[in-house]
């Protein structure tokens, strides 16, 4: 329930965000909120979101169009029938199970989001164009981790290496060269670490 200190409009927007996350599985964009409440300017919505954030009702990732999260409000789940185990080596005997695989249970951290891959720089890491990568939001990473990084306002998926005076973002494609970044001259930010890949065959 909204905080008693919210204005009526802030309360309505807060409830809309909660309902959208629970029913659609992801938060609304600023444009979605504009349309819902017939607000002509995105700046009008931004004022309400800033107020909600200041009052501790929401969190926002400004690098994502759907970057609103609310503590304790999770997206509705999506599950598939889990019928058993299949061998990828020697054949094994198995019996049919009556279970379901809840996708959200594979990635229970509420700070996981998805991005669609464009390009072939990670093809040798079995990440192809059109795949969906699942990213755990965090601002640091170990060397060798596959990360989503923002370099001068451009977002890229690469392997991360921190050197003494630079940061290197390595593609997993033998035909491409690493991106070498001098943090003193270029803006670089880690947005998250790869935790999964989804591909439609």
Tell me what you see in this structure.
With 201 residues, the protein is an alpha+beta fold. It folds into two domains: 8-69, Arc Repressor Mutant, subunit A (Orthogonal Bundle); 112-198, Umud Fragment, subunit A. The protein has helices at 8-24, 30-37, 42-54, 103-106, and strands at 59-60, 68-69, 79-82, 99-102, 112-116, 132-137, 146-151, 154-162, 167-170, 179-181, 188-198. The longest helix has 17 residues, at 8-24. The protein is flat. The relative contact order is 0.12.
Walk me through the topology:
Elements: H1 8-24, H2 30-37, H3 42-54, E1 59-60, E2 68-69, E3 79-82, E4 99-102, H4 103-106, E5 112-116, E6 132-137, E7 146-151, E8 154-162, E9 167-170, E10 179-181, E11 188-198
Antiparallel strand pairs: 1-2, 3-4, 5-6, 6-11, 7-8, 7-11, 8-9, 9-10
Let me know the average pLDDT: 85
Second-tier CATH architecture of the largest domain? Ribbon
Query: Can you write the helix and strand succession as a string?
Result: HHHEEEEHEEEEEEE
Task: Indicate the radius of gyration in whole angstroms.
Answer: 21 Å
Cα distance spanning the termini: 42 Å
Work out the oligomeric state of the chains in this entry: single chain
Question: CATH homologous superfamily name of the largest domain?
Answer: Umud Fragment, subunit A
CATH topology of the largest domain: Umud Fragment, subunit A
E-strand count: 11
Task: Kindly provide the name of the CATH class of the largest domain.
Answer: Mainly Beta
Structural class: alpha+beta
Number of domains: 2
Helical fraction equals 10-25%
Q: Classify the beta-strand content into a percent band.
A: 25-35%
- Please report the number of helical segments: 4
